[in-house]
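=== Structure Prediction Worksheet ===
Name of assembly: unnamed complex
Input type: mixed (protein and possibly other molecules)
Chain count: three
Listed entries:
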Amino acid sequence: MFEARIHGRGGQGVVTAAELLSLAAFHDGLQAQAFPSFGSERMGAPVVAFCRIDQVPIRRREPIAEPDAVVVQDPTLLHHVNVFGGLSPTGCVLINSGRSPSQLGLDALRDRLPALRLLTVPASEIAREHLGRPIPNVALLAGLVALTGVVGLAALDQAIDERFTGAAAAANRRAALEAHAHAARELEGSLSRAGARDG
Amino acid sequence: MASQVEGSLAVARTVACCRPQVICAYPITPQTHIVEGLSRMVAAGELAPCEFVNVESEFAAMSVAIGASATGSRAYTATASQGLLYMAEALFNAAGLGLPIVMTVANRAIGAPINIWNDHSDAMALRDCGWVQLYATSNQEAADMHVQAFRLAEQCSLPVMVCMDGFVLTHAVEPLELPRRQEVDAYLPPFEPRQMLDPSDPVTIGALVGPEAFTEVRYLAHAKQMEALDAIPVLAGEFESSFGRPSGGLLGRYRCEDAETVVVALGSVFGTLEEAIDERRARDERIGAIAVKTFRPFPLEELRAGLAGARRVVVLERAFSVGRGGIVSGDVHAAVAGSEIAIHTVVAGLGGRAITRASLHALLDDLEEGRLAELEFLDLRRDVVERELQRGREQGRPGPHAENILRELGIVAAGPV
Amino acid sequence: MSSAPFYQTGTFAVGNRLLGPGEASVQSDPGRSNAITKGHRACQGCGEALGARCALDAALAATGGRVIAANATGCLEVFSTPFPESSWRLPWIHSLFGNAPAVATGIAAALRAQGRTDVRVVGQGGDGGTLDIGLGCLSGMFERGDDVLYICYDNEAYMNTGVQRSAATPPAARTATTEPVGGHPGNAFGQGKNLPLIAMAHEIPYVATATVAELRDLEHKVTRAMDFRGPRYIHVLVPCPLGWGSEPAKTIEIARLAKETGLFPVFEAEEGCVVASSPIRRLRPVEDYLRLQRRYAHLFGDDGRPDVIARLQRLANRNIERFGLLAQAGEDSGGDGRRDLLETLAASERGPQ
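=== Predicted Assembly ===
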């Protein structure tokens, strides 16, 4: 079972992100369960949503305490909400930012969990470019796809088409494509840097 | 064909297939997505003929449903928590009048203190009002139960509430089979009212009944619910034949065949419970679980049979009776009366506190070690409670409990990340 | 001396420093009570947070700080008391959704029994809690003559549960339960539920309407209300950026447009009769107001509904007539001024050309 936890703020499409991921998994023939951690309607409040993906029907209904992946849609949450709680040591983290993990003050996390895969994607900028609004959820999901391969990019495309209509769907798909390419490049880059270190 | 869809929407689409003629709704978290979905379908003409009435309170919602049902229309509403209590008088009225209204209750805690998250205190508070109470263990079951509920309600002339855990089920997106209208039509015939306000054949509904006849009228309400105990398994069986999947019924059983320990629970926690049971079975523990899917009428005989081989029973409840303890466990005691089975009540998941596999394992380990009391509150912070009780003993005007406790937990929670 | 023009003198913008203590606004006083202090969780641009703070600060100023408040369930209650904090600086109780007026009645009764009638009571809630589920209790409070000032913060829908329609939702507005599908123009055109008029029908001592565009006016009305004993009712229009689909920075502008189009009449009444109405300064067509809110977006564009907009304009015009919202034609516009204005109104009813 793959368990992802998505952190963000109200208005950034956190709940939609979890749903989209589950929809993409569905299109890939997998079982998926997505649900939010809830509060009353409020823009800007910290929001958490969860998504589980598995080959077999998912029965458990508790919040995800030990995620395989943590997605942070708003970097202002990094040092004031415990976004990394329970994170698997061999898991991965995806953060919406144009800065590097070091610049975000995450070296300590990296030192603590050396096997962790940590990636930043400038998702808000990518979204602003394609959608006209800095809603980073779809771009970040594409980054997660690049990072984990838990679902295929084609499946994510299909989910986008189902969930959005017309111009919004097309724009989101373009954002996903760009973010996916960015993440893939970053990953290649870090792999070759790691190879250079070991070599 | 499954669709990846939100639980609330699956319920809305399923209810729409049941051809309600009057839907009356007042918004309350966490039922809102169900009624919004139905509102859109009605506005788009997908349900015609159907009137969607935006009422000014839950008391009005149930009252509108009463009027509609008494006039021969299939009526539906949905609520939760405070809203269910606000319509309490009308609930007793609907049941007393034998009106086959179906209502979704998106289970949520009752205040004070105000809390919008899931537990069963709302429906449990109305367990004696005369409505049939069904508890869904999953979103698929929640949707399916509505189809059976309309059939049951109209067959027995009883109102039926389908309980599904608020947020946990209503707001979860998962693969669900949505029935097609023709499928539902084949299972659920048009509403044939047993009584109807009709100028061509006037009847009086809601007369005063004095001591000379009240007992008989009320006994009949009880007798009808007891008939429902026989009807429910039959309808569930027919559902399985028609739709190709088991759903509903009186009880659900999981790995009970040779179980020494059985956990009895209601609602969505059953999924998590099944996983915990599997983990313990892998360690050769003889443990199983029973889901009470029909809580009213209470299936005493079925449960007695289901617990026949057990030595210990843990009743996991998401509500409790203040000043007494367990609610469901009282009924479980009655079911196994005369046996040697040890019954433990565990009150868990109040106000949305998650029931996790970890805490279930901890409680079942306690049971194994003989450390489990007869009445336990799962994951209770005893230290916090003790300090508040101590404050009450010391100070002149200690202030509201909630404020003091939350201030204390807030200090704890605001600690370093 | 500089010959550069100083546009600020001669107005109240600079005037708060220069006005005497009785004339300056409550909000300009650094010693104000700050009834709802910082740290509450309202959305950016929330009209209700602004309106409630101003209203309660005025109430506290008018009573020497002796106010107890009873609040209905809703946005105000939720964003002001996120556990484990509270932003209230006065004694405050939240009981249920529909009983705030009755709880307020109970507080007033206790104070009377204890001989503490110097302490005043404010009941408050949103449009849902006041017009819908709380109406029975409110009417009871009015009829009994209970000494409570009730303030309704009207954002025209059930916002905290996700923007569902209430009795206060205007015609044609989109909400989660009045989507513009199947040919419906959003919320249906009914006769509405005018709670200020209902309050006036109870012939209570004082009824007023206000918006967050004119905070001085709101302060004045709350202060005036505290001069009376018995039931008083103030209805405040508070735009909600989330629910109305408007920019948070435009909340006050939108509230002003609600008044300047005639859609929201601003007036005062005593014992069932209107005693003053705040005139529209610059009449605006309803379109100027509607365009700023995505809840009306479906009325514009290729599939727009100019007929619905014209209908809304007729509603506004009716208000203008009914409440006398346009100042009498006088020195500025000449004798034909009023006729010109009526012709303008008639033309606007025919819809945008």
